[in-house]
Design goal:
The complex is a heterodimer of chains A (287) and B (324). Chain A is 71% helix and 0% strand. By secondary structure, chain A is an all-alpha fold. Chain A has 11 helices and no strands. Chain B has 324 residues and is mainly α. Chain B has 14 helices and no strands. In chain B, helix 6 crosses helix 8. Classes of the chains: A mainly alpha (287), B mainly alpha (324). Chains A and B meet through helix 4, helix 5, helix 8, helix 9 and helix 10 of A and helix 1, helix 6, helix 7, helix 8 and helix 10 of B. Chain A: This is ABC transporter permease. Chain A: It comes from Actinoallomurus oryzae.
């Protein structure tokens, strides 16, 4: 793929998902929660392109509504974790001392528990619900942003424009917002894009285990969980929601890779904001 | 990168006892933090006594159960008792099964370890091979065929891979058992499921490291001296690309050991992941604590071991120089 289509194709796909989520009530052929036992476990056919589930609900409609849950949870998780992580990381990097040490030790602690185990634990503590899944994912993932914000702030702190701002008497908060944040933000956005796909997968995994969004709300993970139960008789339950998830995650990952390639290789922290926003002329970054 | 390290500086090995002790100290501190946070978080999560008593039990019954489990003591008292016992290797008794939590773990660990090691071997074989081939044959058909597979592998969540494998090989072809553990054949599907994600990650890291090394001068020198591709890869590139690959593989191993939760549930694999879900649902505090402690310990130890291995693989790291 050439440079431009590397960005546009995944963007179009993600855009379609967003449209699907927003207009699910208009686009879906059926009420996602309409139970009709007379038509239970029908294979895919003209009226039900993805078949029906054990309660006779139209799977296509449920997959469409499931897009809402996936995108909403993943976006909220990325924003909450990103804002919290960037803020804590920047303050830790700027102030240093005991505050920085404490924050970065907490980061170490959170990162030394395998992610998914921690996620299961946090949801179990909070109780399963849409909001709690977001909170849980934010708790598990903020250290990722805190680390990059911390190191970028440390590197920026000693640079000329920051020292100049300090010399003119600017306050710490002002310098962080005006001078350090523009350096941190591109890196955080790349991390966030790469994290988004992971958040979609985590939400689905939690729902798959019954720890996510609760029935009857449609979620890809919970449909797949039904798919496991009826795997010997209803193959469509185990395939279509997974396919929807797979295509979305693939598109988001490609976006994340493209974004990262603009910042990399290896010199992320020194890349300025302008270079991130305006693509360099060379077709491909040197390996 | 190519700077010659003076021999004298080899004295500054990071693998000195002092360095190891420092790293081990940090690791212990992290574990202590994990245990403490998990302990208090669990106690906020709900009353296990309510789940243990039969339906229709009176308040007095619940109180008796709470008393027996020591849940009526002050939190601080519970915490210090727990820490004191943990130091002696006693992680408490399962509320549900009335057996030491360590026994339950010891029972499940071999299954999970089996699965994790099988998955790691598979993913290293596939990942390193694919990463090397796509780097060496950049722009050729090999890359064009293999890279989409790697990208797809990275976007496949474990539970979907698992379900598809079951659909094809157990339901469709009836070749392999779908769930439970009977014999080595039942290891195949879950380990392939787990390996898929790790293999993609390892392939990408291997490829990136290979591409970086292929641009180095020593590669051209070796080529000029008549080294074939095989010799170039095994003699020159393997050692120089080992560190990033090893780092990712170590992280994957730690995650596999602690986090094969979904895969184990799909395949009804009697390992730690399944025990985790069961114990969390039953509010079986001692077992959950023990699992988290074990998983984090594995994570921390694997990371520490990887750090120390760096110096063995690449002497420049041991010398505290170089840019690897």
């Amino acid at each position: 793929m050439n440079g431009r289509s590397r960005l546009t194709i995944p963007l179009v796909i993600v855009g379609l998902y967003v449209l699907l989520a927003v207009f699910a009530p208009l686009l879906s052929p059926d009420d996602p929660n309409a139970v009709a036992l007379a038509r239970r476990l029908l294979p895919p056919q003209a009226h039900h392109l993805m078949g029906t589930d054990a309660l006779g609900r139209d799977v296509l409609s449920r997959v469409m509504y499931g897009t809402r849950v996936s995108l909403l949870v993943a976006a909220a998780a990325v924003v909450v974790a990103g804002v919290a992580g960037v803020a804590l990381g920047m303050v830790a990097g700027w102030r240093g001392g005991w505050l920085g040490a404490v924050v970065m030790r907490i980061v170490d602690v959170v990162l030394s528990v395998p992610f998914f185990l921690l996620a299961v634990l946090v949801v179990a503590v909070l109780g399963p619900s849409l909001v709690n899944v977001v909170v849980c994912l934010a708790i598990v993932r903020w250290p990722r942003y805190a680390r990059v914000a911390y190191s970028t702030t440390l590197q920026t702190r000693g640079r000329g424009f920051v020292r100049a701002a300090t010399a003119t008497g600017a306050s710490g908060g002002w310098i962080l917002a005006r001078h350090v944040l523009p350096e941190v933000l591109p890196v955080a956005i790349v991390v966030g894009t790469l994290e988004f796909g992971l958040m979609v997968v985590y939400e689905a995994s939690l729902s798959f285990l019954g720890l996510g969004v609760q029935p009857p709300t449609a979620s890809w993970g919970s449909i797949l969980s039904d798919g496991q139960q009826y795997i010997a008789t209803a193959w469509w339950l185990a395939t279509f929601p997974g396919l929807a998830l797979f295509v979305l995650v693939l598109a988001v990952n490609l976006l994340g890779d493209a974004a990262r390639d603009r910042l990399d290789p290896a010199k992320r922290a020194t890349v300025t904001r302008r270079r991130f926003l305006r693509r360099p002329r060379t077709a491909e970054a040197p390996a | 990168m190519t700077a010659v390290i003076p021999r004298r500086r080899l004295a500054a090995l990071p693998a000195t006892p002092r360095y190891i002790a420092g790293r081990a100290g940090q690791a212990l501190l992290a574990l202590f933090g994990v245990v403490t946070i998990v302990f208090f978080a669990l106690r906020l999560s709900g009353d296990p006594a309510r789940l243990l008593v039969p339906e229709g039990a009176t308040a007095a019954d619940i109180a008796r159960v709470r008393d027996r489990l020591g849940l009526n003591d002050s939190l601080w008292h519970q915490y210090t008792t727990f820490l004191g016992n943990a130091v002696h290797g006693n992680l408490g008794y399962s509320y549900v099964q009335n057996r030491p939590a360590t026994d339950l773990l010891a029972e499940r660990l071999p299954y999970t370890a089996n699965l994790a090691v099988a998955a790691l071997v598979l993913s290293l074989l596939f990942g390193v091979t694919v990463g090397t081939v796509t780097a060496l044959r950049r722009g050729r058909w090999q890359e064009r065929v293999l890279m989409p597979i790697v990208l797809a592998g990275q976007a496949m969540p474990a539970f979907w891979t698992g379900l598809l494998l079951v659909l094809v090989f157990s339901v469709g072809l009836r070749w392999l058992p779908s769930t439970g553990y009977d014999g080595p054949l039942s290891l195949l599907l879950p380990s392939v499921t787990l390996a898929a994600l790790s293999a993609a990650a390892i392939a990408r890291v291997t490829r990136a490291a290979m591409l970086e090394q292929l641009a180095q001068d020593y590669v051209r020198t070796a080529r000029a001296k008549g080294a074939g591709t095989w010799r170039l890869v095994t003699r020159h590139l393997a050692r120089n690309t080992a560190i990033p690959v090893l780092t990712v593989a170590a992280l994957e191993l730690a995650n596999l050991l602690g986090g094969a939760v979904v895969t184990e549930v799909i395949f009804a694999w009697p390992g730690l992941g399944q025990l985790t879900v069961q114990s969390v649902e039953a509010r079986d505090f001692p077992v959950v604590q023990a699992i988290v402690l074990l998983a984090s310990a594995v994570y921390v130890v694997v990371n520490l071991a990887t750090d120390l291995l760096y110096g063995v693989i690449d002497r420049r790291v041991a010398a505290g120089g170089g840019s690897a």
